[in-house]
Amino acid sequence: MPFDQMQQWLQKEKDLGSPNPYNIVLATATREGIPHSKIVAIKEIRADTILFFTQRETRKAKELQENPCASMTLWLPLQQREVIVDGKVEPLSQEENERYWQDMPHDRQLMFSVYSPLSGKAIDSIRELEDERLALEKKYKDKPIPITDFYCGFKFIPAYFYFYTLGNASFSEVIRYAQSHKTWEKQMLSP
Questions:
Q1: Is residue 73 in a domain?
Q2: Are 73 and 24 in contact (CB under 8 A)?
Q3: Structural domain total, the chain
Q4: Nearest to residue 164, comparing CAs of 88, 40, 79?
Q5: How much helix, strand and coil, in percent to the nearest 5, is found in the chain?
Q6: Beta strand 81-91 with 151-165: parallel, antiparallel or unpaired?
Q7: Which of 55, 152, 156, 182 has the fewest Cβ atoms nearer than 10 Å?
Q8: What are the tens digits of pLDDT across the range 91-113?
Q9: What DSSP assignment string belongs to 145-163?
Q10: Which residue range(s) make up the domain with 171?
Q11: How far apart are CA 26 and CA 35, in angstroms?
Q12: Does residue 118 lie within any of the structural domains?
């Protein structure tokens, strides 16, 4: 139920003209509870999980390894709607990572291969990245690019969904879905 509603809202946002509604804010925290948030792209919404990918050495990936609790916020401005999802994450298997890597367009593989080893590290200029991209582009022209060690995916396993519809002339509507014994219980909440 909540996965279907999220898909419907995303599709409507796309139909209304949003170029990429699948970007969400992912909030993570260290083991000590120090929060951090970053925008990531939803790769796939399955029947029971939400998939996203990142670089293995980033702050976000490290926090997810030590504290799997996370929250996602999806803002759909053209509809004045918001979806918040709270839950836990699990890393994808290497086989799953490789399958998604093979499905990624060649130019995205190239970019990921260039910036992943340097993510979060100091560089002298963007030119460094451009030079590396050109070298890899030449090396892998008309050849498959092998998966980088830095490419990793996670499946987000929701415990709660909150669907907000902002009211202009009336109250906002808030619907919460809470997972209970492998079923979803739906409640309307006060805004």
A1: yes
A2: yes
A3: 1
A4: 79
A5: 30, 40, 30
A6: antiparallel
A7: 182
A8: 999 999 999 999 989 888 988 88
A9: PPPPTTEEEEEEEEEEEEE
A10: 2-103+149-189
A11: 10
A12: no
Torsion of CA 61, 65, 66, 71, to 10 degrees: 70
- Token pair recorded at residue 121: 């590290």
Cα–Cα distance list, 185 to 47, 49, 177 (Å): 16, 17, 5
Nearest to 71 by CA among 35, 118, 117, 46: 35
Query: What does the block give as tokens for 141?
Result: 């022209």
C-alpha span between 6 and 28 (Å, rounded): 21
Q: Please report whether residue 51 resides in a domain.
A: yes
The predicted model scores a pTM of 0.87
Helices 106-115 and 126-139: crossing angle in degrees, nearest 10, is 130
Closest CA to 13 of 72, 71, 74, 73: 74
8 A C-beta contact, residue 79 and residue 12: yes
Contact indicator for 172, 156 with CB cutoff of 8 Å: no
Residue 74 pairs in a beta bridge with: 83
Task: Give the model confidence (pLDDT) of 115-133 as tens digits.
Answer: 766 666 777 888 888 888 8
